[in-house]
Amino acid sequence: MYRVLRFFATLVPATLYYSVRQLMLDKEHATLDQQDHYGKVYGRAMLHMAGIKVEADLSALDPKGHYVFMCNHQSLFDIPILFDTLWDYHMRFVAKESLFKIPVYGKALGNAGHISINRENRRAAMKSVDEAVASAKSGISPLIFPEGTRNPDLSKLMDFKVGGMVLALKCGLPVAPLVMEGTGKLLPKKSILFNPDQKIRLRALPPVDPAQYTLKEREKFKDDMYALMNAAYQELLRS
Description:
CATH topology: Glycerol-3-phosphate (1)-acyltransferase
Structural class: alpha/beta
Shape: globular
Number of domains: 1
Order of helices and strands: HHEEHEHEHEHEHEH
Distance between the termini: 28 Å
Strand order of the largest sheet: 1-7-6-2-5-3-4
Strand content: 5-15%
Number of helices: 8
């Protein structure tokens, strides 16, 4: 309980500190490494404050690779875990628009180059996809949560949304699937208390070449990615 209380006591000041530092950065002239810095350090600091340890296997990936990442989503802690685990990559989240409306923190997300998706407006969503493609061409590795939201059913992955598949296909980069297990027990959806002793495991699967699919085959791409990632998730659950 002490670690939980310590975490919440430091969460708000840490969030404000790193958000303000991010906002002070001149995005137009900063390098990708400079744009990465505060988000990565913030993610690592959150895990340290909470006392959370992650067992990550990224051996299937090239440490210098350029990917579109796809990861299942169970908890708010997924975000700092991915910031920390993908330290070597210029990763940016593709996230719902409401996150970018959070005072200070939301603007910091935008300044860092994370990508806002308006799911209620098709035209705005397609514009966001185009922005994500442009970011990918500049060296960014977008990260998509293909389930679209946190999954409360820890026995299997939720059905994937087709929008993330369109983004991945348009980017044209190798798609690196990530499966993560344990965060739904660490901090369940609609809960604020977490178990810092919960074991967290993350595994990268071999990248998938999206060139074998066309945009018209996005449904097949979605189904294939789901089958691949859900099978790997089930394997994690059994191990």
